[in-house]
Amino acid sequence: MAVQPIRLFGDPVLRTPAQPVVDFDKELRKLVKDLTDTMMDAPGAGLAAPQIGVSLRVFTYYVEDQLGHLVNPKLTLGDEIDEEGEEGCLSFPGLSFPTPRAVRAVATGFNMYGEPVTIEGTDLMARCFQHETDHLDGVLFIDRMNPEQRKLAMKAIREAEWNNQPAPVVKFSPHPTHGKAL
């Protein structure tokens, strides 16, 4: 098992758009395994590579007993928005807030071997795909809240025990074809 430290709100990697994966190699398969192990250990419903300090477009998910991952995802969203959905994030430990998301999402991308993948999700699965893809774009779930909810969320974040903790030391080394991985 290769559980990695999860980056917390305030770490710049969480606000940096991730780079597309270009090499579907052994290092990518290790990243997917590390993401899966870390997500399951947390436990969480999803985890994006930037959350462990790797700026690549990869995320894992575990929703409704479905375990998987997606590389270089693209989303197509349904029109119906769920204004009341509670959402949390492993980078904001112990906090959750109502966050609007589309009720339906179709995620396309690749698996770790470079094979095309299409996954349809509703409700929690759709929410997970949107949340994790946002991470890959440098967007956090608090950015999706209405101004009143965001103000309450920021107050809770400022008061959180984990806020202003130093970032963990990451053990990943940059992949030569991807530039900086951190």
From TrEMBL:
Fe cation binds at C89, H131, H135. One of its GO terms (biological process) is translation. It comes from the Bacteria. It catalyses: N-terminal N-formyl-L-methionyl-[peptide] + H2O = N-terminal L-methionyl-[peptide] + formate. Binds 1 Fe(2+) ion. PANTHER family: PEPTIDE DEFORMYLASE, PEPTIDE DEFORMYLASE, MITOCHONDRIAL. This is Peptide deformylase. The gene is def.
